[in-house]
Amino acid sequence: MELNNAPDLTAERLNEEATSSSLSEEQYKRKMERRKEVQEQRLADRNLEKGLIIVHTGNGKGKTTAALGMVMRSLGHGYRVAIVQFIKGAWEPAEKAVLSHWPDLLQFHAMGEGFTWETQDRQRDIQKAEQAWEKALTFIRNPEFKLILLDEINVALKLGYLKVENILAGLTEKPENSHVILTGRGAPQALIDKADLVTEMTLIKHPFREQGVKAQPGIEF
Amino acid sequence: MELNNAPDLTAERLNEEATSSSLSEEQYKRKMERRKEVQEQRLADRNLEKGLIIVHTGNGKGKTTAALGMVMRSLGHGYRVAIVQFIKGAWEPAEKAVLSHWPDLLQFHAMGEGFTWETQDRQRDIQKAEQAWEKALTFIRNPEFKLILLDEINVALKLGYLKVENILAGLTEKPENSHVILTGRGAPQALIDKADLVTEMTLIKHPFREQGVKAQPGIEF
């Protein structure tokens, strides 16, 4: 589908112009009126509902955290959600405490192992990742689930524990209206090509590296 | 504080090397043993607890969503959290439904106006933004709040509704151990310089633009 992007460009130009301090109140008002028209045009143009394949990648923070935010929104709408964690971190009691508020809506499945450098056994890691993917497939195929979060699956792909062809094939089994989020650094290009919404989280400054600050509750876990 | 970043570089090199399919199982195991040692070194080096100034900026998705994820984690730890919304969106019932699970821990304050192109009155917008900032300051100063989310405040800064000097001065009143998150595109450089943790969310692909897909419940609101 070809889409007219002119309203986007106009919206951005108007946003930029509105920040000029040399505008009179009346000029500002006219720009905002025009901006409102453009926004209405944008919303009219985009009327398609579609289940999305969403990728959060990059070396910055916020990949899993933003996915968690989408999980919360979906639960707020009363949708059923499944989370499969492919590379388990050490921290999760706070997240579990939060998610336990929706026992009927949320399914949570963790791979049940530590980071890869904890196990040091590649064959076992591969087996666990494959088991997690089989579990994920049962959620992906199930039309009762509106959102499926495959947390850190990109890392399992990068490590070669899972094959991207298999993941792409599995995603074709998704019902039309459900969303799948795949997080983790190093998302393979074939997955990015297939995805609808791809965001790269880029690290600009991080206190862990620059100031010797440790991972802290509420922020990192 | 000068920090030794050699372990970070070693960790990244080992991560990369571990993805090589030509490694024997034994070589893989040794790399992961070394990786584990490096990780222990990294954690030993970083032992500082510190309240953080966190900025989520960039043109991509996930700035508010990742902040919402941090809010959820903090609530999961039983911390008090305040949210001040500077540029109110049209959508929030689902988020409010989620947040209503923590009536004792969470304070929510919305500017009470629509997007700037809805009001078209700059003086009124400026006044509302200043009121929201005054409210935010009461939370920032209050040591009972562990996390304060100033949602979309960067947009108010970019539009000139608030002055960055005032925001930076206000942030110095934050107690040592509390965190403040400032979201929105166009974060001013002076704020980035002051922040501890800065992540830029970069749009790689977006279905709203590319496929005419509208904002959807559970994902965008």
From TrEMBL, chains A, B:
Compositionally biased, Basic and acidic residues: which spans?
26-36
Question: Which CDD domains does this UniProt record tie to the protein?
Answer: CobA_ACA (cd00561)
Per UniProt, the enzyme's principal EC class comes to: transferase
**EC annotation from Swiss-Prot or TrEMBL:** 2.5.1.17
Name one molecular function that GO assigns to this entry. Answer: corrinoid adenosyltransferase activity
Domain Cob(I)alamin adenosyltransferase N-terminal, residue spans: 20-43
The record's annotation in InterPro entries points to: CblAdoTrfase_CobA, Co_AT_N_dom, P-loop_NTPase
Q: Which SUPFAM superfamilies match?
A: P-loop containing nucleoside triphosphate hydrolases (SSF52540)
Residue ranges, annotated region (Disordered): 1-36
Q: Which Pfam families match?
A: Co_AT_N, CobA_CobO_BtuR
Q: Which key words tag this protein in UniProt?
A: Transferase
Protein name, UniProt field: Cob(I)yrinic acid a,c-diamide adenosyltransferase
Query: Species name for this entry?
Result: Floridaenema flaviceps BLCC-F50
Its gene is cobO
